[in-house]
Amino acid sequence: MPAEPLTALLLGATGLVGRSLLREVLALPEYASVRVLARRALQPRPRLEVRVVDFDRPESWDDALAAQHVFCTLGTTMKKAGSEAAFRKIDLELPLEVARRARKHGATALFVVTALGADPASKLFYYRTKGELERALKELGYPTLCLFRPSFLTGEREESRPGERLGIAAAKTVAPFLRGGLRRFRPIPAEDVAKAMASVAHTVIASRDPLGFAIYESDALSELSAAIATSAPRADFHTTRPAD
């Protein structure tokens, strides 16, 4: 057990990955408290603290960022956001603002979902934005920074995304043929991403040492989740890709 009680801070707990991640993080007994920042109230649970906030007023929720571990699963679509500026605000500016403020409050570990293909030099706006976020987060000086890059996410969303469903269906059709280095492009259940994130967080807690900078792409996330299901976690899953 850690020398002192730990607090986990979760951003994006009402989303596809976030809902599963909240369950996984609450299942880790090392966290004495799990704090969620959200736009609406959530169902009460033991050790869960929900702070309903206006994300446009960061000074009003800055005091809620005192936590050792920060998890971020925020993400939207261009259609839902309505514009590139609105998309960047949700997928880049808000996660970066929370991470920056939490670091000033003493946070030591940051776990963030981005996307497979994230690259600040990408010609595609979506992947360029995700890459810019990753690059900016690396500059914050977190002793542990873990970036999770899933492929197409599967699972039950609260809102309908017909175009995304068609893309996932097509990806599932070709998935059996994606082998070797192409395995990372297979669709992945959101709950598997959440389990992998919780597994990495547990590794950080158990080691009591910083993990440094690590990237986990979709195939590694699937392996981590499978290892948990078989109760046979392997430490080498946590070095899937060297830090840049």
Description:
- This protein has a single domain, classed as Rossmann fold, CATH 3.40.50.720.
- The chain has helices at 16-26, 78-81, 84-104, 125-138, 162-174, 190-207, 218-229, and strands at 6-11, 31-38, 48-52, 69-72, 109-113, 144-149, 153-154, 188-189, 212-217.
- It is of the alpha/beta class and 244 residues long.
- Mean pLDDT is 87; it is low at 232-244.
- The strands form 2 sheets. The protein has a 7-stranded parallel sheet with strand order 3-2-1-4-5-6-9, with helices on both faces. A two-stranded parallel sheet has the order 7-8.
- Helix 1 runs parallel beside helix 6 (190-207), helix 3 (84-104) runs parallel beside helix 4 and helix 6 (190-207) packs across helix 7 (218-229).
- The protein is globular.
- Helix 1 (16-26) links the parallel strand 1 and strand 2.
